[in-house]
Amino acid sequence: MLKSVGLIVLFAIVVTWIYQFMLPPLQRPCGLPGGPPLTAPRVKLRDGRFLAYKEIGVPKHNAKNNIIFVHGFGNSRHDVVIAAHLPPKVIEELGLYIVSFDRPGYGESDPDPTRTLKSMALDIEELADQLQLGDRFYLVGFSMGGQTVWGSLKYIPHRLAGAALLAPVVNYWWSGFPANISKEAFEKQPSLDQWAQRVAHHLPWLTYWWNTQKLFPGSSVAAGKAILSQHDLELIPKIVSLGTHHRGHGMQQGEFESLHRDMMIGFGSWEFSPMDLTDPFANKQGLVHLWQGNEDTLVPVSMQRCIAERLSWIKYHEIEGAGHLFPFAEGMAEAILRSLLLSHK
Question: What total of structural domains would you count in the chain?
Fold first, then answer.
């Protein structure tokens, strides 16, 4: 009897230890003891959370075009790819007012443990309202920031004057793709990334443990060891020249509510598929643009081609020889913005 009780107690201790080991550490909120300092302006949202933001361009009251930019995986409000190498004369000519913000859990924005595609769209809408950007504004998302653009096209299309997706990360479980295309694209990834995405999709509660344990490698992208294209490698010095003092700023509150939450949402079970969206600008008062490099090693061009073919209302731009970081190339930011702002006028 005592032996059985002892085994039960031992089993309970082991299970408790494993459970605690798998739990992510507590977030380090900005502005609180032990947390990073607050340095950015922030807006308070409907649920009490704060979003930190950054303004670029002409003064808001002089702006002709208001743009909200959504940063990518592991980045922050400082990583505004559409402002990279953008000449001041272009900013003045187009009357650009660009707002970049830290997505929940990144930088100096509060985490949102209940974050969804819809809640992110509502965050965008509320940010625009509090900054008085008007009834309609432009939205641009890079890489994992593309999930917020897709969500906004679904939930707040009436607030958008136009949108651009730059190398948006795809979810291999979206419906509407030919099975052979999604399967082939998924299997072209390194095996460690295939497993990391399977875990994020099927066992999201294991995402933190999977990407932090030492038994086998987790996501190469989360670890900063992704394989990049030759074009991307050539762009690295230009990106470094823009400044590295903000490197790591995005994850300063912890990686779970930033990187791992991104993976859980980006590769999780979506409540809709972008392949089923309808044209938000059937009145021809705006356009959705999708930009993709055909040598992107992180996001498969084959999947983007399927999206462009299925959603014929999207203006698709495929860049020959370009990788994932193409927005940083000389002249690309200007080309993206001119296309977004002028093509339907």
Answer: 1
